[in-house]
Here is the input.
Amino acid sequence: MSKTTTKQLRLGVLLSGGGRTLANLLATDDLPAEVAVVIASRPCAGLDSARRDGLNAHLVPYQDYGPARLGEYSDRISELLDQAGVDFVLMAGFLSMWIIPPRYEGRVLNIHPALLPNFGGRGMFGRHVHEAVLAAGCNISGCTVHFVTNEYDAGPIIVQKEVEVFNTDTPETLAARVFEQECIAYPQAVRLLAEGRVEIDGKIVRLRG
Here is the structure.
């Protein structure tokens, strides 16, 4: 059996909020990656925290562009990622649209707070997802790390983690348990990428080794 070679990855992180996912990545021991650039779509605590940590952090306000200039907005994000020389891009609560150019296909990841393909799509983020899970009467929820395409929540799945849903759950209590699993799943996906074990086969991810 051949020995796995692990590459040190350069990551770009896109965020729009508090930066909990970024903080978890930075706090993960022995993660074979460094955060090369952080890009925020609006002023937020996550951007402030990245700057305090001395990271290469940029604000690209979506409101300065809007839907009519989405192409320009997307180009600016891609330009900053190019300049930082990133291997992969991790969305970490990024709430703006970024048109992924061909050179970044298969290199962008997101973590979704449900078990895709259920409870995904436009408008399904944060509390909205957990409310929908509870309204559907699900017994199991969880999180999904997946590749990002230019279609909402439709890219190949890399890692999923499950949590039990209790009768007493609120969106907040369910969200807290799901986030605990997110803190495990995202670093796991990064390690798989660094080890070169992730292969995209059409709409499916196959893990080598």
The longest strand covers residues 33-40. The longest helix spans residues 171-194. Residues 110-209 form a domain with the Rossmann fold fold (CATH 3.40.50.170). The mean pLDDT is 95.
